[in-house]
Amino acid sequence: MKAFVVEKYGKDGARAAEVPEPTVGDRDVLVRVSAAGINPLDKMVRNGEFKQVLKYKPPFVLGHDVAGVVTQVGSAVHGFKVGDEVYARPRDLRVGGFAEFIAIDVDDVAPKPSSLTLQEAAAVPLVALAAWQVLVDRAHVKPGQKVLIHAGAGGLGSTAIQLAKHLGATVATTTDTKTEELVRSLGADVVVDYTKEDFSKVLSGYDLVLDSLGGANLDKSLTVLKPGGLAISVVGPPDAGFAKQLGAPALLGLVMNTLSRKVRKQAKALGVRYEFFFMQANGSQLRKLGALYDSGKLRPVIDSTFSFDQTLEAMAHVEQGRTKAGKVVVSMVPDND
């Protein structure tokens, strides 16, 4: 089958290749891929940024978001049958959405939301799971709390705004002039145009900040939290909790704590908290999220769609910052499927 594989770590390490169709285990669902979403995580894995904890062995197929049709089920699989339309964020070390077929552990798969096309569904799993796991599992967001979500027009930001609003929070976001109307339509109550003003000068008293930019943006985010507030970053620096989540050796946890020592020290001095976040595959949560899409509480935001043959171009589109809003999707089938 045709796939896009990481042949070696680095910017030029991905290429199109012919690879064997995946082997289907007892607990696997074989999916004929209809569409796949592009995520910044694809670039990070391709570049080897997590190779100390996610030990992929090149060549491996890339792609963390997938939607498609079940063509085979393992002997221990219940609840799915051939012909079902599904979507998933396959678990780490078993990714591979940039291919004609992928075998996915049944625990990571959920029925495709009936209100979404396969292309729309492919844009959803990673960012929807990340938003859920940050807002519900980690931060336990409650009605009336104040949540700041950076980069509100992005794939994660646009999803997190909607979910935070559904949970009853007052939502602020940062974006630029071109996408202000979009983020307001998604539910943002307070919009800071970062091209015109500094969010840390106009916001204060927040319970939670979801940071997807890192660096100075993360440092400033700590200052807008109320005492005891929490800043969660999806881009850096990692902490010991990340190593524990991945089952890495304790020594690696100490190394990661060293990497995040500065920001954790800053947070402590301000009387707030910092945590790194790395999402996990979860089919049961995708079922819950699917119900929110079908009820209209959530909607996908798609920037552009590329053909499957243009997967590397689609990755470059995201990597070069040309995405205007939402997610980029690669499609095996016509948009009207």
The quaternary organization reads as: single chain
N-to-C series of helices and strands: EEEHEEEEEHHEHEHEHEHEHHHEHEHE
The amount of helix comes to 25-40%
CATH topology of the largest domain: Quinone Oxidoreductase, Chain A, domain 1
In this structure, how is the largest beta sheet organized? 7 strands, mixed
- Tell me the number of strands: 16
Low-confidence stretches: none
Alpha carbon gyration radius? 19 Å
Number of domains in the coordinates?
2
- How does the overall form come out from the CA principal axes? globular
CATH class of the largest domain: Alpha Beta
Terminal-residue CA separation: 22 Å
Q: Average pLDDT, to the nearest integer?
A: 95
Q: Do you know the CATH architecture of the largest domain?
A: Alpha-Beta Complex
Number of helices: 12
User: What is the percentage of strand-forming residues?
Assistant: 25-35%
Category from helices, strands and their pairing: alpha/beta
CATH superfamily of the largest domain: Medium-chain alcohol dehydrogenases, catalytic domain
Keywords:
26% strand; six-stranded parallel β-sheet; Rossmann fold; 337 residues; 12 helices; 2 domains; seven-stranded mixed β-sheet; alpha/beta; single chain
What does this structure look like?
This protein is of the alpha/beta class and 337 residues long. The protein folds into two domains: 2-124 and 301-331, Quinone Oxidoreductase, Chain A, domain 1 (Alpha-Beta Complex), CATH 3.90.180.10; 127-276, 3-Layer(aba) Sandwich (Rossmann fold), CATH 3.40.50. It is 31% helix and 26% strand. The protein is built from twelve helices and 16 strands. The strands form three sheets. Strands 3, 5, 6, 7, 8, 15 and 16 form a seven-stranded mixed sheet that branches. Strand 15 (302-307), helix 12 (311-319) and strand 16 (327-331) form a beta-alpha-beta unit. The longest helix has 14 residues, at 125-138. The chain is globular.
